[in-house]
Amino acid sequence: MKVTRSVETWGTVILLEACNNDKSIEFVEKELDKAERFLKEIDKVFSTYKETSEVSLLRKGLLSIDEASSLVKEVWSLCEYARTLTNGAFDPWAVKDGFDPSGLVKGWAAEKVVSMLRLSGLEHILVNASGDIFVTGGRGVKSGNIKPWVIGIADPSDHQEIVKVFEVMGGCIATSGTYQNGSHIKDPHTGLIAIGAKSATVLGPNGALSDALATALIVDGDAATDWIFKPELHDYSFWVVNRHENTAWSHGKNKGYTETVMVDSN
After folding, report:
1. I need a labelling partner for 236 at 20 to 30 A (CA). Which of 25, 32, 176, 213 fits?
2. Measured in whole angstroms, how far is the alpha carbon of residue 139 from the centre of its chain?
3. Which domains does the chain have, with CATH numbers?
4. What is the pTM of this model?
């Protein structure tokens, strides 16, 4: 039986979906309760808007990373790794008031929730953390015909139109761009609004890194060819809508770097 839950936190709504034929609705609801509590606790720890969060204290110099919780240390380390992989295009320290892991933590938290639910015995799970989606198992469980999750990517210029569809059985699909928050991503190299790409989608096994890579692609656009071919990113795929042309480019496992015409929404 499929159970869905909408969780209001992080200034957005996070969608949880879980399904197992051999689990009762009551069991699934109980596990989603735990996931919801975890997500709200993550907001308390990582929010840059809550003055008492650990991230806010780090930004104010009232807490050192050595004194921070294990979760914050984990995210800090992931941010350092992502910064190195992207040649600095993703840099949570190059922002006003200091360390802001917002461009990585949603994908990281989505994967954490999926891991929690899987440990409880659930197998078919989707977590949509405002554009950062982590899935496992599949859909169509009730009929016994398990199918991939179908994830549509909206045209950043017309959110009602889907311009790309991915079928995913497991892992993260993270999208960044001008969908909900407008042009909010800063270029760490210049301190100005990022203009490298209009929209970027990354598919990969790691939620935190997929989220960070999508942010970095908004910054670098075509210039990301300086780092997307690194061997550490062999298991990741990229789909990027160019900033000024009605085109998109893609790169991924077992395929080359290609330029393709984007669906015209005019």
Report:
1. 32
2. 20
3. 2-261 (3.10.520.10)
4. 0.90
